[in-house]
Amino acid sequence: MTQRSRTAMPDGQEAHYIRLDQLCVGIYVHLDLSWMDHPFTFSSFLIKSEEQIAKICALGLARVRYEPGRSLSAPLSVETAPEAGDVQAVPVAGNATPDARIQEKREQVRRHREQARVIGETEHAFVQSTKTFKAIHRNLLSRPEETLTGTHTLVSGMVDSLLTDKDVTVHLMPERIAGEEMYLHAMNTTVLSLMLARELNTPRGSCIELGVGALLHDIGKADVPDRVRLKQEALTRVELELLHEHVGFGVAMGRRLGLSAEALSVIAQHHEAVDGSGYPHGLRGEQISLLAKVVAIANNFDNLCNPANPARVMTPHEALSMMYSQQRARFEPGALSVFIRCLGVYPPGTIVVLANERYGIVTAVNSSRPLRPVVQVCDARRPDDLVLVHLEDEPDLAITRTIRPAQLPKAVFESLAPRHKLSYYFDAHGGYGKPAGTRAQGTPAEAPAEQGQLT
Q: What is the tens place of the pLDDT at every residue in 294-337?
């Protein structure tokens, strides 16, 4: 017969304890130790391997607390049961946690601090770049020379950062710039366009012109009435035609600013589609500049994730899936496949459920292993405890599915704080100090990567 001990927990719940020789795969355990005194990412988890059992036994615990309701297996039966009484986990003398495991945890803490530092620097750069563009936008026509110089300076800095470093991480940015949707959309489109252009081996000069065009691709909307531009309901035919005129307005402004032909082509063609279904001229295939094809992909993605009407918002995962499964005829095939590879199967902002049933929000793309991004993880039973997890370092912890933010338990939603508006920026720190290696090699099975080059 299986032997186990019970005791009352401070919160009134009944705790169950078993001996170490009763452990088996399928038992959900809680380690009553300091996080630094065990080698696991979480202090509570479902045992999935004999290796995990061996690590638990090496901790020197007299007993282990387990949770029957979350276990998939019953504890093993033993002939001799422990006596009831003090069932708190007590380290056994002479069997302390090895220094190697403590050092492993210290290294993990160091890496988390490094991650926090990099994210902080990235957030600062993002806010500064957005403020710079806002100032540029205000001076579009009143100071055209200053506008052009400022735009080139801003874009050149972004391009140099992207082209200098071998491994670039795309981050989800915090919602700290309220009411700046127009500027955030321009920044998102520029960052994502430059990321894609970089992976397509685009020369630096063309990257700069692409960035200028992407940053200013919607400048013509300044001449579209707010009642049309900001309308959340479906537009009438007349309103839609007026909105489409922002392309022509933008080209006219771009010419007054003295933009290059390459940058102007982005403004003129960012709504064209390779299958001829775009506007304003219904151009096809090679009639559309390669730079405009890149910006069209980034612009469409951000419009799906950040629509004017919040009721139509898509998760990043849904947006990429739609672009590939339903809209791919509109985009350059090779560029779309590379875009999906760059953002990963789970782009920043995606809400995921892990194999241990914890919830998380993807905060950064792992460029070398797109199925294993960086995730901020929350346990529904302890929503205030957030852990930043590199899934690349957790071979037994995988993403099982994605969900919409509204599907999160209330306490988890409040803890993870999913963004209402998604904003992206990049760092070029080699993946939080990891050795820079090959960039993303995997794509969704139905979307084979195709390399291309822009000239």
A: 999 999 999 999 988 888 889 999 999 999 999 999 999 999 99
Q: How far apart are CA 363 and CA 346, in angstroms?
A: 10
> How far apart are the two ends of the chain, measured CA to CA in Å?
74
* Mean pLDDT, all residues of the chain: 82
Phi, psi of 438 (to 5 degrees): -70, 150
Q: Which residues touch 420 (CB under 8 Å, ≥6 apart)?
A: 175, 310
∠ Cα 226 227 228 (to 5°)? 85
The torsion angle over the Cα atoms of residues 179, 185, 187 and 193, rounded to 10 degrees, is 170
Rounded Cα distance, 37 and 42, in Å: 12
Q: Convert the pLDDT of each residue in 410-432 to its tens digit.
A: 999 988 888 888 888 888 654 44
Cβ atoms of 400 and 392 within 8 Å: the answer is: no
Helix (H, G, I), strand (E, B) or coil at 144: helix
**Helix axis angle, 99-138 to 181-199, nearest 10°:** 120
